[in-house]
Design brief:
About 70% of the residues lie in helices and about 5% in strands. Strands 1-3-2 form a three-stranded antiparallel beta sheet. The chain starts with a strand and ends with a helix. It has a single domain, classed as Multidrug-efflux Transporter Regulator, Chain: A, Domain 2, CATH 1.10.1660.10. The chain is mainly alpha-helical. GO terms for molecular function: DNA binding; DNA-binding transcription factor activity. InterPro entries: DNA-bd_dom_put_sf (IPR009061), MerR-type_HTH_dom (IPR000551), MerR_fam (IPR047057).
């Protein structure tokens, strides 16, 4: 199936400008063009966009995403480096999750503390 740039943007959750930017910087391969010269995205293109979006959500810098995108064109010979990029990013995500878990524990403690104060105030009223 093929999708216009507007449909690809809608399905990927990215803006049209972001799709064009990703194409311009080499993060996304230029999609095929239809008979009118308009971009025509495939299901494979949308799958790659979904992956790139997830990488971005992990906080991976654009430069690392670009390196990964370039390495994927080299095939299996670059599998080791691509794996290492993902391993490194996973470590960073795990560290961030640990930080957020610590923050969540503090919030939970404070919320419980204020709930107890409210309970005590209601009981004494």
């Amino acid at each position: 199936m093929s999708y216009s740039i507007a449909q690809a943007a809608e399905r990927s959750g990215l803006s049209i400008d972001t799709l064009r930017y990703y194409e311009r910087i080499g993060l996304v391969d230029p999609p095929a063009r239809d008979s009118g010269g308009r971009r025509s995205y495939s299901d494979d293109d949308l799958g790659w966009l979904a992956f790139v979006t997830r990488l971005r959500m992990t906080g991976m810098p654009i430069r690392m995403m670009r390196e990964y995108a370039q390495l994927r064109h080299r095939g299996d010979v670059a599998a080791g480096r691509r794996k290492q990029i993902l391993v490194d990013q996973r470590a960073q995500v795990r560290a961030r999750i640990a930080e957020l878990q610590s923050c969540l524990e503090i919030l939970d403690y404070k919320i419980e503390h204020y709930a107890q104060i409210e309970h005590d105030l209601e009981a004494s009223a």
